[in-house]
Structures are given as structure tokens and as C-alpha cells.
């Protein structure tokens, strides 16, 4: 896993995950780190969200094009 962080916890992996009622397709990964950690994008893109999301905390979403965030 190429990571934008040096230290992190993987919350949700890339790929398809099946639950009792849903099939979830993650085109990215959900990572958690220390609030003061430096984050570097792994590919060029545009920041489309930098805000706090309930249940997720401070969140940065980068649009890398072709529906990859």
C-alpha cells in the first residue's frame, strides 16, 4: 500500500466489501492518523473537501479524476 502518511491505521480497504444488506465498492482507502500529521497526495488532484465529517473527524478528499477520490 502506497500511503500519503508515514503512520496510519487502515479503517477501510480498497475494493469490494459485502455486508448482509449491501455491497460496498471502495475506490480508495480510509486512513486514520494523528491530527497533526503531514499528509501528501499520492497522485495529482484537486482538494474538493477539507472539513470535519461526523464520525470521521477532520477529512480531506482529493479528486484525482475519472471518479477516483
Secondary structural class: mainly beta
Instruction: Give the overall shape.
Output: globular
Radius of gyration: 13 Å
Major beta-sheet overview: 2 strands, antiparallel
Helix content: under 10%
Quaternary state, please? single chain
Mean pLDDT: 81
Helix and strand run: EEEEEE
Low-confidence stretches: none
The count of helical stretches stands at: 0
Entry keywords:
single chain; two-stranded antiparallel ribbon; 69 residues; globular; mainly beta
Question: Can you describe this structure?
Answer:
The protein is an all-beta fold and 69 residues long. It is 0% helix and 43% strand. It is built from no helices and six strands. It has strands at residues 9-12, 15-18, 23-26, 30-32, 46-53, 57-63. It has a two-stranded antiparallel ribbon. The chain is globular. The mean pLDDT is 81.
Summarize the entry for a quick read:
The protein is mostly beta strands and 69 residues long. It contains no helices and six strands.
Topology:
Layout (H helix, E strand, L loop, with lengths): L8 E4 L2 E4 L4 E4 L3 E3 L13 E8 L3 E7 L6
Antiparallel strand pairs: 1-4, 2-3, 5-6
